[in-house]
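quick one, two chains, predict together pls
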Amino acid sequence: MKHIPTLVKRELSAYFFGPMAFLILLAFQAIAWMNFYDLLDRLVRNPSTLSGVLDPLNFYISRSITFWIALMVAIPALTMRLLAEEKRSGTIETLLTVPVTETEVVVSKWIAGVAMYFALLLPFAVYLPFLYYQGNYHYDVGPLYSLTIGMTTLGMMFVAIGLFFSALTKNQIVAAIWTFATMFLLIFLAEAGYNFAVAKGSAWADVMQFLSIFYQVYTFGLGQLDLRFLAVHLSICAFMLFLTIKLVQWRRAG
Amino acid sequence: MIEVEQLSKRFGDVRAVRNLSFSVGRGEIVGFLGPNGAGKTTTMRMLTTYLTPTSGRASISGHDVLDDPLAVRKKVGYLPENVPLYPEMRVREYLSYRAKLKDVPRSKRRSAIDYVLTRCGLIDFDRRILGQLSKGYRQRVGLAESLVHDPDLLILDEPTAGLDPIQVREVRSLIRELGERHTILLSTHIMSEVEAVCGRVILIAAGRIVIDDRLDRIQTESAIVIQVRGPEPAVRRAIESARGVRRVTLMSEEGGVAAFEVHTDGERDIREDLAARIIQNGWALRQIDVRRSSLEERFVRAVSEASVVPDNAEIEAA
């Protein structure tokens, strides 16, 4: 495990050698700014008529469609390169013929991806103190913690999924499309399935609600930290990392 | 240094390497020769633990490639074919990154990098971006990288591919110098490269070893070309009965003149003996000559024999 700092450093620096990371960071900065502007606008007009607004976090993140769409583009874009590019360019051969284990390689790439994910979310956190101190809008700070923890485990899971698809192929675009499709399934289709099940009065509604990322983040934003959600995120994350390590090891068998 | 026993690799239905056995001692420079697709790269990838063998064993400095891949990787410096590099890194930055991964201790890292930069003629290029280097310099960076942890064994896959003639000479002389301190296994399909650098040749074709011998032995192997006016079967019997003759092949027969190629065990010159036998039988001797076979001829002959015979055998077996 001693090579992880070296490997993570290289992954992070590789992100910033291309325009991709800058563009994604810029896009998230813009979205955070727009959402914040929108939030302020509504607060100034009439806070009491909009029940959700009292809870800025939910307005800001979990009920913002722009945020989710941007995340569904950003995570595949950040993870697609991680292993697929090494395979395409052949550098994987140099990486797996030095005294470094497959686990170290995969975990380092995952850590770098998660670090980038945090960098994306940072702009959203930056605006909130202004609202609290400058704007004298004393919202409840408690949900900040639950939302931070929930978004962290969620991001860890998404990055692990992206890394797994990146290990499956040499083609970055293919990896990105698979990751996008999986995220779309978890974020939007689960929500649509829930609505459908409710309309039908089906008992599956509870299951669909539990699976829906929308619902999960909504409850985090309300200040409820449901440990079952965290357990789901972390176990999917660990399983995906395990599969990715196995994929890299199986490649040696040819 | 390298011990390989019955090593095989199969990709689906393709048997890339079949039952390879050889060993390389410390300090040898071995040329791993073969046509394209013979299994050179696959074998090297198994030795560097990048691929696992389907069957058989291979070990480097006593460490098995399957049981203890990390120990093997510490002992080996590997230059892969086409030298894959991270295009965005700078030369020194890349070498420093690789030295860290190869566990070069922090205190020695700087001097190790300076040493390989000097050794590979890169000292003035250490700030260059890898993606902007020419093929020759990429090759040098790859070589410097494979040396940076001072490995016992260097495995170089086509180290001079794509270089211009001057660079080829430079890389070859560098390899010769390195051979004084390291054991080297290098693959190539260029004969003159082997003749210029290696002490020993392992020739593989269609995944099998067809020649494994010292270069000077291969180069001194000779054949006698003999032309006689006389009845072909009788002449052949007379030549075959001479001492030291291993194999006689008829090259041509025209107008009562038969030409043979005679392979001997090479211990002594039997030309006079052969001439005397021809004369005794009353045949006319038209030509007798020694022909040294070049490595290239041996290569072509061995490869064409290997690629015809085993594939038929394979089909029959199936």
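Confidence is low (pLDDT under 50) at residues 310-318 of chain B.
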